[in-house]
């Protein structure tokens, strides 16, 4: 407090010493913030980066441990080796496969680039094409990074996730264009704007079709030499003329399990279903027809005659894969890994469609058919 009776000289001294105090205090606070920032940085990145929405990618660049030859680590800190040791039980016979990294459900992104590398090492032994469900948790960015690090000839189809939350859509849309800016489109076969949006009835189909048009317009304006097809994917039974008009290729999820048939008849049922639904519209419009999901679960409630079990999955693999390859049906198998987070959120059936366990181990007794 400045004494009102003090001389001008004293007043100015008091003011100046107050300024001093303020400067000293400010510097003190800045140092404190610096220490705090360092601690937060240490907890978030150096100690593994497992906090929600962490940007850690499992790279230990900057930790100064040059005695370790491994640059990447899985979520549980196992070092990742970039050499692919072929698994003799796997065969590269699938047209494509659906893939979602484990521990990658926004905002709890506890996955690392190392996890994705390990997954892609496996996927590369069964197919050259990957479809992904969304942009969150670096799923697409790290898949492309893993493909580059492993020097693989694999292409991808990312999805810009669409539900009734505009914030989510904007985040996914921005992330998609960031990835395209960073990696280009050489390894991108197309982009799906949403998956099963019509099935979930969350937004007006007209809004979805407008978003497809917006994404197409923006990607075409970027001047790439290659044209990137833009579409959505939905249940085969939801494909109609308006859907077909809105997309560059007709992508549909076909799930014979929900057709309620014995696995023995599932492949034939699927081919017939395709011809009568999405395939019919695609042919009429002279557009490519692609099966965005087809597969069989190994655990969960039965659906009519359809049983979720490993022998039934084996029946489906034996009857569908080689036949589809011969017929030149384009399909993305559903899916790579079992998904415990889906089991936790919905049902055991939802989480049990993987060919592999969440840890990437082929389900016991499963064999890949001999197509030649
Ligand atoms: C991984 O993280 C490191 C350090 O944060 C960063 O330098 C690098 O660019 C990241 N890589 C990817 C593919 O995000
Ligand atoms: C450095 O890496 C080596 C080999 O992975 C490991 O044994 C060692 O504990 C690491 N050191 C530190 C300080 O992290
Ligand atoms: C990676 O694995 C290969 C094959 O097992 C091995 O030869 C190589 O030494 C390993 N590299 C590292 C850095 O551990
Ligand atoms: C990551 O996934 C594995 C395998 O599903 C699971 O055991 C683990 O608890 C998950 N970790 C985190 C941090 O979510
Ligand atoms: C990569 O795979 C595609 C088919 O998926 C093939 O046409 C192309 O020749 C391959 N490129 C290389 C370098 O192997
Ligand atoms: C939309 O998603 C964001 C996070 O992605 C969340 O914060 C927000 O509450 C959501 N809005 C609605 C209406 O659910």
From TrEMBL:
Reported function: Glucanases play a role in cell expansion during growth, in cell-cell fusion during mating, and in spore release during sporulation. This enzyme may be involved in beta-glucan degradation. Active on laminarin and lichenan.
Principal location: membrane
Transmembrane regions: 21-43
Keywords associated with the record: Carbohydrate metabolism, Cell membrane, Cell wall, Cell wall biogenesis/degradation, Glycoprotein, Hydrolase, Membrane, Polysaccharide degradation, Secreted, Signal, Transmembrane, Transmembrane helix
SUPFAM superfamilies, alphabetized: (Trans)glycosidases
Membrane topology of this protein: Single-pass type II membrane protein
InterPro entries (UniProt xref): Beta-glucan_modifiers, GH, Glyco_hydro_17
Compartments it resides in: Cell membrane; Secreted, Cell wall
BP-aspect Gene Ontology terms: cell wall organization; polysaccharide catabolic process
Signal peptide extent: none
Organism: Diversispora epigaea
GO molecular function: glucan endo-1,3-beta-D-glucosidase activity
EC number assigned by the record: 3.2.1.39
Identification of the protein by name: glucan endo-1,3-beta-D-glucosidase
Family, similarity comment: Belongs to the glycosyl hydrolase 17 family.
Keyword Isomerase set for record: no
Gene Ontology cellular-component annotations: cell surface; extracellular region; fungal-type cell wall; plasma membrane
Catalytic activity: Hydrolysis of (1->3)-beta-D-glucosidic linkages in (1->3)-beta-D-glucans
Enzyme kind, highest EC tier: hydrolase
Pfam families, per the entry: Glyco_hydro_17
